Amino acid sequence: MLTADTTKSRVVVETRASGLFASVAHDLRIEAPVEEGTSLDGERCTLRFEVVRMKVVESCRHDTGAWHSPSPSDAGDIESRIRREVFEGLTTVSVDGRLVGDRAVLAVRARNALSLETAVRVDRDASGLRARGRCALSLRALGAGKVRVPLGAIKLEDAVTVSFDVTFVG
After folding, report:
1. Which letter does DSSP use for residue 62 in this model?
2. Out of 9-23, 42-56, 107-121, which region has the weakest mean confidence (pLDDT)?
3. What is the pTM of this model?
C-alpha cells in the first residue's frame, strides 16, 4: 500500500473573477493541503482535503498577471467566505482517481460528485510514484454555493483550475 506524502504533495485551485466590476476584483490561488491519501496498487488512489485547511496563497488583480501574497487579513476574510459561502456545511472534499494510460479518471466529491478525465504525468521509482496534472472543475456541478457580492457586480467564474502534484510512497 502507498500513502500520500503530505509534505511533498500540493494541490492548488485557481479562481477567476467575472462580472461588471471584475477589474477591481482578485483572482486567487488557493492551496488545498492533502490531509490523507492512499493507493493500494499504484493505479487507483483516494485523497481527502479538509475545507478548513484551504488557504489563499496568492492573489492577483483580475487579468493583470502580477501574483502576490495577500495580506493576512485579506486572506483570512477570503478563507472565511470560502468556508461560509462556497463550502457551507461541508468539512471535506475527496477525490477517487484511477490511471488509464496517460490519463486520470477522477471522481471529485463535495456536496455533489463530479467525474472527469484529464492528462496526467506519472513518474515511478522504487519508493513510490508522483502524479502531476491540471484540470478544470465546475463549482456548480460540485454543488458549491455562490459567492455573494452585492448586486452581482463581481462573480466567481464557475470553472476553477486545479493543479496537482501528488507523491505516494510505500
Report:
1. T
2. 9-23
3. 0.89
